[in-house]
Design brief:
Chain A: Pfam families: CBS. Chain A: GO terms for molecular function: protein serine/threonine phosphatase inhibitor activity. Chain A: This is Cell separation during budding. Chain A: It comes from Rhizophlyctis rosea. The complex is a heterodimer of chains A (339) and B (406). With 339 residues, chain A is α/β, with parallel strands linked by helices. Chain A folds into two domains: 29-181, CBS-domain, CATH 3.10.580; 192-338, CBS-domain, CATH 3.10.580.10. Chain A contains 14 helices and twelve strands. Chain A has helices spanning 32-38, 52-62, 83-95, 107-117, 125-131, 143-151, 171-181, 186-192, 196-199, 215-225, 249-252, 264-279, 295-305, 326-338, and strands at 46-47, 66-71, 76-82, 136-137, 156-161, 164-170, 208-210, 229-233, 239-244, 288-289, 309-313, 320-325. In chain A, helix 3 packs across helix 4, helix 3 packs across helix 10 (215-225) and helix 6 (143-151) packs across helix 14. Chain A is globular. Chain B is an alpha/beta fold and 406 residues long. Chain B has two domains: 5-295, Purple Acid Phosphatase, chain A, domain 2, CATH 3.60.21.10; 302-395, no CATH class. A six-stranded mixed β-sheet of chain B has the order 1-5-6-10-12-11. The longest helix of chain B has 15 residues, at 20-34. Chain B is globular, with a radius of gyration of 20 Å. Classes of the chains: A alpha/beta (339), B alpha/beta (406). The interface between A and B is large, with 41 and 41 residues.
């Protein structure tokens, strides 16, 4: 555990480096605040009184996946609002309608239709505490605590100073940092050098849908199974693409809601082509590894592609056998840190 | 049954679709040609390298107009013939026929889009279903893609590939022993050749035990990103002078990196009919001189889009978009916007590179500004604009650009 010792540069002329002295502290002693400096942020806060539709619009306009919700009366942060909430509260209601004739309509209309079938909570606070527990840390908190939290499946934490929000740190942010540190620590190198089969890493609970499943039904599949991503399969059962809950932001932007009534394959094609155009380069439709890949390779792929998971496939038939997520990586790194 | 390839090619230049059974036969014949070619094909200059075209059929016709028609010009196509554009089927059918007709004048290299997995998401599969009613043509072509060569070496000097280098491949000989007759794997040397990218300012961190040095896992999900040192080493070990590849959008049509050790050629102008970029082909002279012939998109009035096609069928006579007689280049314009009239561009016998007058005329035609074709093509109308981070700003190396061989 962190001893709270300050990091001070050592003059090499006077003292040879010695393990245990402060010249190179352990990676998990890095303070959260240091990570925030690397990632320049303008944190967005959602006020608990605003309706769900405005909260959704804030996410889309700011290009973020989640934002903390502030309760003015209680003067506390009460939870994180993300696209899972949009899916849960809004789109399920929408799915009960038939496909609208008008292919383009505004966010307000979307929510109006959803509300006709299912009430959308005006205040977010009451519902968030169960689904999206709010974790906050301070700038001085060492990363080790984040590793513990992330290993439980929490995707992001807020860094606060009293009731002031300094920033959000996600699983991805910390992993980008850690990836660069791994080769300095023999115990980490050893851990990531093992294969996925050796470590048994990943979840065999693989939720998939066929490519011609309608997007709204696929989203329901995700909420029913409490997963944030599913694999999309072709007729032979091989995995050809990945659909995440957060992908619905592509449908929320520029009023492309009609996409939600299309097939999954059509929707992911749209997303991949848009992303490829913006980046000037296309990517593989699905990020995958095999059971003989090392943990380090799986992690490297997640870090490079900024994905939260990679699918472990049987190369011969192309079907997914398990899925490895950032949460799994955090779990496997933790014992090393606590040694 | 007679197989009149010249007649078929004439039809293909007018963007007609071939019947399904003809496509099947075509693919079988082209496979017979390709199976005899090694993974590394040797090509002699002069020749013209073409980057990604992505189903932009009218812009492929522009390439023939400015670069010369087959077989008067030797062409090396660097892959990515399909996906994204409206006419992937017509494009690949034409190129496959040209390969069959002029096997020694046309080289077809495999790109990352010549793959079953990628074409299912990026448009080719959907287009085949739409145009033929089933997936047979898609499967004929994707089976054909398994036969495409992986790379080209021009006169033992210029290495050409679609994507880039691989940490598993240090020598040309290692490329030669790959079993390429298969779907592109998601990892390994064959995947790397079609997926990798060079980067200008690499910041690498490698976690694996075996030190890959300058390579890092690519954000594309396959292949690697690599830097100057890796490029230099590959050139030195193999006694080569330059690497030319495609695979990344270049706003200027091309990009030169690492003090001219590596260049990217991009041949799809106004990519996806939205990006507003220029395109180029790399013309290599008999003495290995290199010239990036930059061009813009085929002017709007001479191109059709799926939305416009039914409307203009009746007006075929006036615009000359109907049955075209020959392939002499007179039919579809391509003149400098507002400067030369359509008919003045080409004269009979002028098609190839041989005529001095043609060479002069084409020199004047380079650097044409195709301009923004805007949203008139009936596709996406969002006008989201273009991400400024894209690869761009080519042409800084004055030692190569602007020098034209004669």
């Amino acid at each position: 555990m962190a001893t709270g010792r300050e990091y001070e540069p050592v003059d090499y002329e006077l003292q040879p480096p010695h393990e245990g002295l402060g010249f190179q502290h352990k990676w998990y002693e890095t303070k959260c605040g240091e990570l925030l400096d690397k990632v320049h942020q303008q944190p967005v806060v959602i006020s608990g009184e605003i309706p769900v539709e405005s909260a959704c619009e804030l996410l889309v306009k700011n290009g973020i996946s989640a934002a903390p919700v502030w309760d003015k009366e209680k003067r506390v942060f009460v939870g994180m609002f993300d696209f899972r909430d949009v899916v849960t509260y809004v789109l399920l209601g929408l799915g009960k309608n038939g496909k609208p004739d008008d292919a383009t309509y505004e966010v307000e209309e979307l929510f109006r239709r959803a509300r006709a079938h299912e009430p959308v909570p005006a205040k977010l606070a009451a519902d968030l505490s169960q689904k999206n527990p709010f974790y906050s840390v301070m700038e001085e908190t060492p990363i080790l605590q984040l590793v513990e939290i992330f290993g439980k499946g929490i995707h992001r934490v807020a860094v606060t100073d009293g009731d002031k929000l300094k920033g959000i740190i996600s699983q991805s942010t910390v992993m980008q940092f850690l990836y660069g540190q791994i080769q300095k620590y023999p115990d980490l190198v050893e851990t990531v050098g093992k294969t996925l089969a050796e470590t048994g890493l990943g979840s065999k609970n693989v939720i998939t849908a066929h490519g011609n499943t309608v997007v709204l039904d696929a989203l329901k599949l995700m909420t029913d199974n409490d997963v944030s991503s599913i694999g999309i399969l072709d007729p032979s059962g091989a995995i050809v693409a990945n659909l995440s809950m957060s992908d619905i932001k592509w449908a929320m932007k520029a009023t492309r809601f009609a996409l939600l009534y299309e097939t999954c394959l059509h929707f992911v094609s749209f997303i991949d082509q848009e992303q490829g155009m913006m980046a000037g380069k296309d990517k593989l439709p699905v990020f995958d590894v095999t059971e003989t890949s090392t943990v380090g390779y799986a992690l490297g792929k997640m870090v490079a592609t900024r994905a939260h998971r990679v699918w472990v496939v049987d190369r011969a038939r192309g079907n997914p056998v398990s899925v490895v997520s950032l949460t799994d990586i955090y779990r496997i790194l933790l014992p090393a840190a606590q040694a | 049954m007679t197989w009149d390839l010249d007649a078929i090619i004439s039809r293909l230049y007018t963007k007609q679709l071939l019947p399904e059974h003809t496509v099947r036969e075509l693919c079988e014949k082209v496979k017979e040609v390709l199976v005899r070619e090694g993974n590394v094909r040797n090509v002699s200059p002069p020749c013209t390298l073409v980057g990604d075209v992505h189903g932009q059929f009218y812009d492929v016709l522009e390439i023939f107009r400015i670069g010369g028609y087959c077989p008067d010009t030797n062409y090396v196509f660097l892959g990515d013939y399909v996906d994204r554009g409206y006419y992937s089927v017509e494009t690949i059918t034409l190129l496959a026929c040209l390969k069959l007709r002029y096997p020694d004048r046309v080289t077809l290299v495999r790109g990352n889009h010549e793959s079953r997995a990628v074409t299912q998401t990026y448009g080719f599969y959907t287009e085949c279903i739409r145009k033929y009613g089933n997936a047979n043509v898609w499967s004929y072509f994707t089976d054909l893609f398994d036969y495409l060569v992986l790379s080209v070496v021009i006169q033992d000097s210029i290495f050409c590939v679609h994507g880039g280098l691989s940490p598993s491949l240090h020598t040309i000989d290692q490329i030669k022993v790959i079993d390429r007759f298969r779907e592109i794997p998601h990892e390994g040397p064959m995947a790397d050749l079609v997926w990798s990218d060079p980067v200008s300012a690499p910041t690498f961190s490698s976690v694996s035990g075996d030190d890959k040095g300058d390579f890092a896992i690519s954000p594309r999900g396959a292949g690697y990103i690599f830097g100057r040192e890796v490029t230099k080493k590959f050139l030195e070990v193999n006694g080569l002078g330059h690497i030319c590849r495609a695979h990344q959008l270049c706003m200027e049509g091309y990009q030169i990196l690492y003090d001219d050790m590596l260049s990217t050629v991009w041949s799809a102008p106004n990519y996806c009919y939205r990006a507003g970029n220029m395109a180029s082909v790399l013309e290599i002279g008999p003495g290995l001189e290199r010239y990036f012939n930059v061009f813009g998109p085929c002017p709007d009035q001479y191109r059709e889009t799926p939305a416009k096609e039914t409307a203009t069928a009746a007006a075929a006579g006036a615009m000359g978009t109907g049955g075209m007689g020959g392939v002499a280049g007179r039919e579809k314009g391509g003149s400098l916007a507002g400067v030369l009239s359509r008919d003045a561009v080409w004269e009979d016998g002028d098609v190839g590179m041989g005529s001095q007058a043609a060479v002069e005329r084409r020199r004047k035609m380079t650097r044409r500004v195709g301009g923004m074709v805007g949203n008139g093509n009936g596709g996406e109308g969002s006008g989201d604009g273009v991400d400024a981070d894209r690869v761009g700003a080519g042409g800084q190396d004055s030692g190569v650009v602007g020098r034209y061989f004669l």
